[in-house]
Design brief:
By secondary structure, the protein is α+β, with helices and mostly antiparallel strands. It has helices at about 1-10, 35-50, 60-75, 125-145, 165-175, 175-180, 220-230, 250-255, 270-275, 300-320, and strands spanning about 80-90, 90-100, 105-115, 150-160, 185-190, 200, 240, 255-260, 325-330, 340, 350-355, 360, 365, 375-380, 395-400, 405, 410-420, 430-435, 440-445, 455-460, 470-480, 485-495. α1 runs antiparallel to α7 (about 220-230).
Length: about 500
């Protein structure tokens, strides 16, 4: 329990971009331990429903509607405001179960979802009774504790996921744009009890460099929150790509931050993964994936227990945290007085402006910003070739106007990217320093002799050591070795307490 509490406090230092705020120095309520027996009791109900309705809980079949009514009934009794949202696909009626917990900021919504349907071949107890049961029991615990979150909580059980994310797509598409904008984050839990379990967390920051790239701004912080829980219980996680296979897809397509966990489907567990997590190498994470044998016997209790607790950890940590106070910020849409410092670089000098995109074996200078039109960028023009306006000849630096920091805990948050070709080296870098009565480097990303494409990432660093001082934020970048292709950008700088 002590390690869990320490992890909570660590997580509260994060800030999610795009309006999803977590506490910095404020205290959130300690997350509960979700009883495994309660989660498994829901799985028993789903199994019983399937047994009584042709062996499945698939879209358009009576077993699905019975599952939806079971979930809705439990939530109604617990004090949620619930909706059975209907839609039509393949000539059959499907349903999403939506449950809102009273209170919280209606303009700052945290959604937690899982698909409720099975395939026609079987009862779908791991896929995805497990995720459905885990978030249902978390919602019921919200009621038992009479939780008063600072964010508005909305839980969702999606229909017809197995036929192409039909329920979640219908929900997101049919929301008015103003209502979609209120959803600041979506957490997805799909297959969290696989018998040969892995421990995967959606790769919000694209640190794995695999597949589809990072999620929308804020996804990286959701990933870190879930990683913090698993770290607190001594479990190492690995990233899994936003490959579009589950119900986060319609959310990230609309720019909504997303995260979640996964224990594996038909993929084969490697020897390295078996050494890391136990289980059987050379065997699928779930040998009963989309088969009739996906019953209550097809569940890894340890994995299910941990992932249910991870759901609760994320909900309590994010939803009950007190929003931070912004001391100073710059989105670079207006000139707030950043000044370029003398450096040795001959091109690619830092400037505020509307950046033009460049590519060379992938994106190098991003033509899109985190917010608005402008950012800080190393030579905003594209030129005839990708290397025309990149950093050449050494270092370039730019500094903010003076900012007086308050006392106490103070954080610096900013979006950034460093991109380079395979001819870069560790002598190349992006660096952020705080210069006041004392001076220190608070962030550094080094280059390497590999291709690195540009992708916006949000970082938050503790600058409490400078509290009470009048400081300037200095952003530096360098092509300091051989002449290599190096580009960098910074956006949405915030000082918060």
């Amino acid at each position: 329990m002590r390690s869990r509490l320490l992890a909570v406090l660590a997580t509260l230092t994060l800030v999610l971009a795009g309006g999803l705020h977590q506490a910095t120095g404020a205290t959130a309520l300690a997350p509960p331990d979700i009883p495994l027996a309660n989660v498994k009791a829901h799985l028993t109900q789903f199994q019983s429903i399937a047994n009584s309705n042709g062996g499945n809980r698939a879209h358009g079949r009576p077993g699905y509607l019975a599952s939806a009514n079971y979930v809705k009934g439990r939530l109604d009794a617990a004090g949620f405001t619930t909706t059975l949202q209907s839609f039509t696909y393949n000539g059959a009626t499907g349903y999403n179960v939506l449950a809102d917990w009273p209170g919280g900021d209606p303009n700052d919504i945290l959604m937690v979802g899982a698909h409720l349907d099975s395939v026609t071949a079987g009862p779908g107890i791991n896929d995805n009774g497990s995720g459905s049961a885990a978030i249902l029991e978390t919602a019921l615990e919200v009621s038992r504790q009479a939780l008063q979150p600072t964010k508005h909580l909305r839980f969702a059980w999606w229909g017809a996921e197995e036929l192409g994310l039909r329920g979640s797509q219908y929900y997101v598409t049919n929301l008015a744009a103003t209502e979609r904008a209120k959803i600041k984050a979506y957490l997805n839990f799909d297959m969290v009890g696989s018998p040969n379990a892995g421990y995967f967390v959606y790769d919000g920051d694209n640190s794995d460099g695999v597949g589809s790239g990072p999620g929308p701004a804020g996804s990286a912080a959701l990933e870190r929150t879930l990683q913090d829980y698993f770290t607190s219980v001594g479990v190492q996680t690995r990233g899994t790509d936003f490959d579009g296979r589950s119900d986060y897809g319609p959310f990230i397509a609309r720019g909504i931050a997303a995260g979640g966990t996964f224990t594996g489907a038909e993929g084969i567990k490697s020897s390295a993964q078996a050494q890391l997590w136990g289980g059987t190498a050379g065997q699928a994470f779930d040998v009963c994936y989309h088969r009739a044998c996906d019953t209550t016997s097809n569940i890894n209790d340890t994995a299910l227990n941990r992932h249910a607790d991870a759901v609760a950890y994320a909900v309590w940590t994010i939803a009950t945290a007190v929003p931070p106070v912004v001391v100073w910020e710059d989105t670079f849409e207006t000139d707030k007085g950043w000044t370029r410092l003398t450096g040795s670089a001959t091109t690619g000098l830092w400037e505020r402006g509307d950046p033009e995109a460049t590519t060379s074996s992938g994106a190098k200078q991003l033509g899109t910003t985190v917010s608005g039109v402008n950012d800080l960028v190393t030579g905003r023009l594209a030129g005839a070739a990708a290397g025309d306006h990149d950093i050449d000849g050494g270092t370039t630096a730019i500094q903010s106007p003076a900012v007086t920091l308050p006392s106490g805990t103070v954080k610096l948050s900013f979006a950034w990217y460093l991109a380079h070709g395979s001819n870069a080296s560790s002598a190349d870098y992006l660096r952020v320093r705080v210069v006041g009565t004392t001076t220190g480097t608070v962030f550094e990303q080094l280059g390497a002799a590999t291709n690195r494409n540009g992708a916006w990432t949000t970082s938050t660093v503790d600058i409490s050591a400078f509290a009470g001082q009048s400081v300037r934020i200095v952003v530096e970048a360098a092509d300091a070795a051989t002449a290599s292709l190096v580009e960098a950008g910074v956006d949405d700088v915030k000082i918060i307490r």
